[in-house]
Amino acid sequence: MSVLAKSITIMSAPMLPERHRIAGIVTTAELVAAGVSDCRIRTLVRRGALYQVARGVYADGAKARDMLGYPDGRRLLTLAGAVAAVGPDAVVSHQSAAYLHTIDQLGKPEQTVVLTVPVTRGWTARAGVRLHAATVPAEQLTSVVGLRVTTPARTVADLARTLEFRAGVVAADSALHKKLVTKPELQAVLDTCSRWQGARRAADVIAFADARAESPLESIARVAFSDCGLPPPELQVWLGGSTEPIGRVDFYWRRYWTIAEVDGALKYGGSDGPQRATLQLRRDMLLREDGYEVVHFTWDQIDGSPKRVAASIRAAFQRGVRNATGPGLRTA
Fold first, then answer.
1. CA quadruple 274, 275, 279, 285: dihedral positive or negative?
2. pTM to 2 decimals?
3. For the chain, percent helix, then strand, then coil, each to nearest 5?
4. Looking at CB atoms within 10 Å, which of 118, 228, 258, 304 has the fewest?
């Protein structure tokens, strides 16, 4: 069981004011209001009965240590602690909400806790916490392990508004692929914030997003293809073979009989990596025998030299049109 599921049952210890928070998280102000002095708090921390999550935020020691035994335990404690410190009106949003919803993000995981708070009151900056002041309607709120969180649709819209285009596409593709959202749901959220900063970029992201993209690498590749002026490819297409398809390809340009495949870090990793690489080589050979051009590229290539990748694909277009002799395609 993951910590996200397990933490639902972790509540506060009898010695702490009952707040029904993960690992019994409480603030210094709540402890003092319950009659626990600052001196007593320090003693409980030294004895391990309390665990300090952040400045002014504590958890039940035993339950916190239990959570810390899980890979994502520390991050979840930090999230819950930030919400407790900022106040009950705080909503987990943006990158932090994407983490809770398992929506893929571009780049290294965001360690800063991102919260959205009402625009009607003043807020004090807090280390390790980034605040956005915005309205979150009730229909754009949900709950994950007891935390108030923006819905997947609102989360994607927020990321698409505030991040660069391709980062927004990574999030939107992921949420669509995992069936966390639909395009109409994304559009409905965008309609509520159409005049906000970044709304036009978010609309472009939503229009461009495709549920068939299966990884951040495929998402940024699609953006790179568009930026370099390549026509949109078909995604996840079964190709080749006279009686049954040879395999499913990442990108296919039907008119040019050209295939592009992304080679991620995990594709040929593990103990079966050499065998998978051999199978890929054989599949490429069979596809080429059927008249297709096959181009491979890596994350570093599409991220660092997208024009070079695009040039390779254009050269394949020319060869594919000239040599096309294979059968038609069969979609998945």
1. positive
2. 0.86
3. 50, 20, 35
4. 304
Is the domain of 226 the same as that of 316? yes
Convert the pLDDT of each residue in 178-225 to its tens digit.
999 999 999 999 999 889 999 999 999 999 999 999 999 999 999 999
Strand residues in the chain grouped as ranges (E) = 26-27, 50-54, 57-60, 91-92, 113-117, 129-133, 141-144, 147-150, 234-239, 247-253, 258-263, 293-298, 330-331
Helix (H, G, I), strand (E, B) or coil at 308: helix
pLDDT score of 79 more than 60: yes
**Sheet strands side by side (includes 57-60):** 26-27, 57-60, 50-54
Asked if 281 and 309 touch (Cβ cutoff 8 Å), the reply is no
Structure-token match 């025998």, residue found: 289
The mean per-residue pLDDT over the stretch 44-57 comes to 94
Shared-domain flag, residues 223 and 191: no
What phi and psi values does residue 251 have, to the nearest 5 degrees? -135, 140
294, burial (CB in 10 Å: exposed 0-12, middle 13-18, buried 19+): middle
Domain span at residue 251? 216-331
Rounded distance between C-alpha atoms, residue 72 and residue 218, angstroms: 26
Distance of alpha carbon 199 from alpha carbon 194, whole angstroms: 5
